[in-house]
Amino acid sequence: MPRRAKPASAAPAAAIFDLENLLSLAANGDREAFAAIYDRMAPRILGVIERILGGSGPGEQVLEDVFVKLWNASRALAGSETSVAAWLTFRARAAALDRLAGRAARSSRRRESGSPLLATAAWLPLGLRRRIYGGTLRFARGPEDTNN
Prior knowledge:
Layout: H1 10-16, H2 19-27, H3 31-53, H4 59-78, H5 84-113, H6 126-134
């Protein structure tokens, strides 16, 4: 039995909505193409971000930052072999990890700021400082604590 030929319009219709084609259009200033990328990819990328941040925190802000970076990098990416989905996933992961590291650093600074050892312990290795400030090491505070 002979095969039927596909209609000529079927293949180009699928290619129009391809992310890389949409990015090429967005690189030339097409905001609707960029919105289509956002609509298609934002839920997936937000899921990546929220898994890293634990569901709490500024996931939407990180998502917005990632898409602003995509808009700014669209001209460079449009001519490259880079997958839009891979680029977004990589950037989202990196941005979420940066946000998580910043949150941990702020929390660590808050814990350490009230410690009397802060001024004298800055030269200690980070692991030891964490053990000290985390409470796993005990130091005598004065003559009255040496008997405990």
